[in-house]
Amino acid sequence: MTRVVLGSASPARRRILTAAGVAPLVLVSDVDEDALLDRLTGAAPEDVVVTLAQAKADAVLSRLLSDPQWRETAADALVLTCDSMLLFDGALAGKPHTADVAIERWKRMRGRSGHLLTGHTVTRLSDGAVTGAATGTVSTEIRFSDVSDAVIEAYAASGEPLEVAGAFTLDGLGGWLLDGIDGDPSSVIGISLPLVRRLADQVGVSVTDLWHGGGAA
């Protein structure tokens, strides 16, 4: 059976896949995203998120293909990696990391809209070698509520927005602070099921073969 390897520490991404019938094996990459972003200054937003996702894929593939403990997994695997950033006022924003930055961003975003971009890579491994790869990006419009300073400060104090792209979530406390979205909700949470299905098709894997399997629970 083809094992699905999720190259992400995101619990939200794992939850999406698990709810969709796939129990992925999680293998976290060690990519320095901030350093890579510094080298991508001036690149198109869509290229930035795909490049970050590809860097994560490269790191995961290196471990799978070089470490003997992963030999069995690398014999038949589908590796998924993603990266999300918010495009707002013509600039990309990732994780705020601090409450002060999250508050400053929310005071600019409230009552307005932005686009969450999520870059994806899907890589097929067969017999310990890469036999196919595909990439893509999903853009979803996010409509932020016009919330008060007190609500913004309470949200930042919760800690939730500090380590998520764009300083918000759809499936957590942040869901109270959004007026709506236009696009794929699974992409906003972290991984686009429709796009992964299409990319998997490109590398010769049907998602129906992954349902209720694809890795260790």
Work out the number of β strands: 7
What is the molecular shape?
Answer: elongated
Q: Structural class given helices, strands, pairing?
A: alpha/beta
Radius of gyration: 18 Å
State the order of secondary-structure elements, H for helix, E for strand. Answer: EHEHHHEEHEEHEHH
Q: What is the first-to-last residue Cα distance?
A: 14 Å
User: Residue share in helices?
Assistant: 25-40%
Low-confidence sequence ranges: none
Q: How many distinct helices?
A: 8
Mean pLDDT: 93
Task: Profile the largest sheet.
Answer: 7 strands, mixed
What fraction strand? 25-35%
Name its key features.
single chain, 217 residues, alpha/beta, seven-stranded mixed sheet, elongated
Describe the structure.
- Helices cover 36% and strands 26% of the residues.
- Strand 1 (3-6), helix 1 (11-19) and strand 2 (25-26) form a beta-alpha-beta unit.
- The model has no long low-confidence stretch (mean pLDDT 93).
- With 217 residues, the protein is α/β, with parallel strands linked by helices.
- The chain starts with a strand and ends in a 15-residue tail after the last helix.
- Strands 1, 2, 3, 4, 5, 6 and 7 form a 7-stranded mixed beta sheet that branches.
- It has helices spanning 11-19, 33-39, 45-66, 71-74, 99-109, 149-158, 185-189, 193-202, and strands spanning 3-6, 25-26, 76-88, 91-93, 113-126, 129-144, 178-182.
- The radius of gyration is 18 Å and the shape is elongated.
- The protein is built from 8 helices and 7 strands, in the order βαβαααββαββαβαα.
- Helix 5 (99-109) runs antiparallel to helix 6.
